[in-house]
Amino acid sequence: MLNIATTIERRPLDAPFGLEIVGADLTRDLDGATRKAIHDAWIDAGILLFRDVRNDDMAQMRLSTIFGEMEPAATADLNDPVNQFMMTLAYDPQDPSGRPNPFYRVDGIDRAGWLGWHWDQSFMPTIVRGAVLRMTEPARTMGETGFIDAIQAYDRLSPDMQKRIEGLEVVYEFNPDFCSGQFGFPTDIERLDVGATVKPGSHYNFPPVVHPLVITQMETGRKVLKLSPMHARYVLGMERAESDALLTELAAHLGDPAHAYFHKWQENDMVVWDNWRIVHSANGVPLDCKRSARRTTIAGDYKVGRYLDPTLDRDREVKRLVD
């Protein structure tokens, strides 16, 4: 198919960051200049919204390739068996086999699919570049996805705190129980084992990894508060009490909802976020409410993460060179 010249419009979201891109018809190929304009907008804004009810799997994959190559998600059991690059995230109260377990009670509401603030795959040494989420069946109530710009969060830190955290590193380890050790999560969160049969992620084996607490956006030189509260465990080389206090303070600062954008989904909306910069969360849905989404993962490595065990990191480097 021939590339079609396209004129797009950048519209600010009702948020401190982010843009809606209008005029990009992703049901067909886009010309190179338009693809570059979309990529540049993404670097500027952190997240982009594409709103078109005609969006489908092909449109989503076409959009994803603007930002890099797609890759299967690390949580492989969620990937589509027919299309390994497409993940299905669905909840249907009439289908117990497909329920995300466990459920959580947050702010007095029992929810399926709730997630606290995080960046994707922080429990891996290679941090994916981004993701595209498309809501194929929005929830009739709730179901918002939250986004926060960690560049703006860094800029809001005091100069003393910016100086204090420069050069620090955080150890991350996969933890599927959101009532167990997360920083910045609600203090009143309760795990509900209604209908639960298998602890989510209990079959995963992700060795601990290390990531810097501050990184620099390579395209602009802006600094990023690179903290993922969901799987952060401790600051490397710091006494545990001091580490816990620091991560608690930083997670509360980063996750301040006053600086967040909460997207209210319409059918086949697509949102793409820069995973090296943006943290996100999922509000979840009431237990009697159906919802379905599709997600693609954009490959990448910002080349500053590593395994805590240096032996594993050496093996990783050998594999990289062989591949």
Properties at a glance:
323 residues, alpha+beta, Double-stranded beta-helix, 8-stranded mixed beta sheet, disordered N terminus, TauD/TfdA-like, TauD-like_sf, dioxygenase
Give a summary of the structure in a few sentences.
The protein has helices at residues 32-45, 57-64, 150-156, 159-165, 240-254, 310-322; strands spanning 9-12, 19-22, 47-50, 70-71, 86-91, 103-106, 109-112, 115-118, 130-137, 145-149, 169-172, 190-192, 209-212, 214-216, 223-225, 232-235, 260-263, 270-274, 278-282, 285-286, 291-298, 306-307.
Describe this structure in words.
One of its GO terms (molecular function) is 2-oxoglutarate-dependent dioxygenase activity. This is TauD/TfdA family dioxygenase. With 323 residues, the chain is an alpha+beta fold. It has one domain: Double-stranded beta-helix (4-Layer Sandwich), CATH 3.60.130. The protein is 20% helix and 28% strand. It is built from six helices and 22 strands. The protein has helices at residues 32-45, 57-64, 150-156, 159-165, 240-254, 310-322, and strands at residues 9-12, 19-22, 47-50, 70-71, 86-91, 103-106, 109-112, 115-118, 130-137, 145-149, 169-172, 190-192, 209-212, 214-216, 223-225, 232-235, 260-263, 270-274, 278-282, 285-286, 291-298, 306-307. The strands form five sheets. Strands 1, 2, 3, 4, 5, 9, 18 and 21 form an eight-stranded mixed sheet that branches. Strand 14 and strand 15 form a beta hairpin. The model is unreliable at 1-5 and 196-201 (pLDDT under 50).
